[in-house]
Amino acid sequence: MSLRAIGAAAVLVFALAGDAAAQTSRARSDALFEPQPDHPADERLTSQGQTGIDSAIAPYLENLASGIVMVEGYAQTGTRDQQYLRSQARASIVRDYLIAKFHLDPQATGAMPLSADSPGSPERAPWDGVAVAVILPKASLEPPK
Q1: What domains lie within the chain, and their CATH numbers?
Q2: I need a labelling partner for 125 at 20 to 30 A (CA). Which of 1, 15, 69, 131 fits?
Q3: With bands split at pLDDT 50, 70 and 90, how would you rate the model's confidence at 8?
Q4: Cα dist. 135→28, 42, 67, 88 in Å?
């Protein structure tokens, strides 16, 4: 997880993805997603993936009501259009899971497909999975005075 201050906001980024080293919870995309039993070309979250997402977002739950959550999807295999579609599906799967599990505001929870483009990934390695950015008012992360 990394924390970046931007003006009056703070952005928390934790990544759940491929073989790149992340600062907090991470899972290879094959641990995060599995093929749908009735349609193997589509993916769904594994129980291990759900647990990883839960533990990564849990420390920030009390602040999420005042923030914005953006799920970025990545995919490294296939043609460029297949990468885009898979990254879009991954981001949407995780977004839908977060909204359902944590009752997040759908208007403040987004999904962004980024295909194979992962310039900000740890160690600048290709990213395969999802990254979740939580944008919070900086004041919500400051200790009380």
Answers
A1: 2-138 (3.30.1330.60)
A2: 69
A3: very low
A4: 24, 29, 5, 20
